[in-house]
Design a protein that fits this description.
alpha+beta, Ribosomal Protein S5, domain 2, Alpha-Beta Plaits, 7-stranded mixed sheet, 4-stranded antiparallel sheet, 41% helix, 24% strand, globular
């Protein structure tokens, strides 16, 4: 059985969501898949993802090994003689929820091996244990979308509220290839705001989520794009954008995008844009000239 965890993009609200404000986020149509393969000769619980150059056992001194052990422990799975063979359709460290997608796929694979019924709460706890190791203070939105898919509004206090009947929206995604640390960017925002949830920039980011959600539901890409553009400027003021991310957003707008912004923690990672369909090739071409291979995903 192949088990999946979906990648994600945050359309609006990253960083503000850590302080209790809403975030508008969507799962990608791709992520990480894991197939549990029994090891006939026995041996330790192992994980392999060759496209990320990862091959570890649960007891190894490696970040993925520690995540694997944390997930297994949270599920009470022990260390079964399994090799979890994974494949990824998203890059690591790009702000696309790769660590949560991996954690959810691993948790589902172990859950399947244990022949337990589907249990979203157990999957959330197990994947959350891994995310805490990776990011320190995760919001929870990545895990929620990696499990459920779809699009919704996420709050830390209440979780993911799915949006139903959302008009189809195509989003261009541009992984910059620049490494970044979610934990470092969370610390950066804490320093910029003195840890205050009532910081004006965080409050406006939360309000932009409400504006963008209404625009998404009513099929108003111009209003959604304007909210994205403003959000990117605010995230830059908080210190989580970079010259490369700014340049990629500027290139997208110059090529006809209605809105463009960083997505996820920033400091590297990826940008997203929305554009009339006739302008999508120009946006992707502009990113290509900048050394970024973008792709298009659907939000619905």
């Amino acid at each position: 059985m192949t088990c999946v965890g979906y990648g994600k993009i945050i359309l609006l609200g990253e960083h503000a969501v850590v302080y209790g404000y809403p975030a508008l986020a969507s799962a990608l149509d791709r992520g990480v898949t894991v197939a549990p393969v029994p090891t006939p000769a026995g041996g330790p619980l192992r994980f392999e993802l060759r496209s990320w150059n990862v091959a570890v056992a649960a007891g190894d001194d490696h970040p993925v090994a520690r995540s694997l052990a944390a997930i297994a422990d949270a599920l009470g799975a022990g260390r079964p003689p399994l090799t979890l063979v994974a494949d990824a359709q998203i890059p690591p460290g790009a702000g696309l929820g790769s660590s949560a997608a991996l954690a959810v796929a691993v948790a589902r694979a172990l859950h399947s091996h244990l022949r337990r019924p589907a249990d979203v709460a157990a999957l959330s706890r197990a994947a959350g244990a891994s995310e805490t190791l990776v990011h320190g203070r995760p919001s929870g939105v990545d895990v929620a979308l990696a499990i459920a898919g779809g699009v919704g509004v996420f709050r830390r206090a209440t979780g993911l509220a799915p949006l139903i009947g959302v008009p189809a929206l195509r989003v261009l995604v541009g992984p910059s290839g620049a490494p970044r640390s979610t934990a470092a960017m969370i610390d950066q925002v804490a320093a910029a705001t003195a840890g205050r949830a009532d910081d004006d920039r965080l409050r406006e980011l939360g309000a932009l989520t409400d504006t963008g959600t209404q625009a998404l539901l009513t099929g108003d890409p111009a209003a959604l794009g304007a909210a994205m553009n403003r959000a990117h400027r605010l995230l830059g003021e908080l210190g989580v954008s970079t010259a490369q991310l700014d340049a990629l957003c500027d290139a997208a707008r110059a090529a006809g995008a209605q809105g463009a912004k960083l997505t996820g923690a920033g400091g590297g990672g990826a940008v997203i844009a929305i554009a009339p369909r006739a302008h999508e090739p120009a946006v992707l071409a502009a990113w290509k000239r900048a050394g970024v291979d973008g792709f298009v995903t659907s939000v619905r």
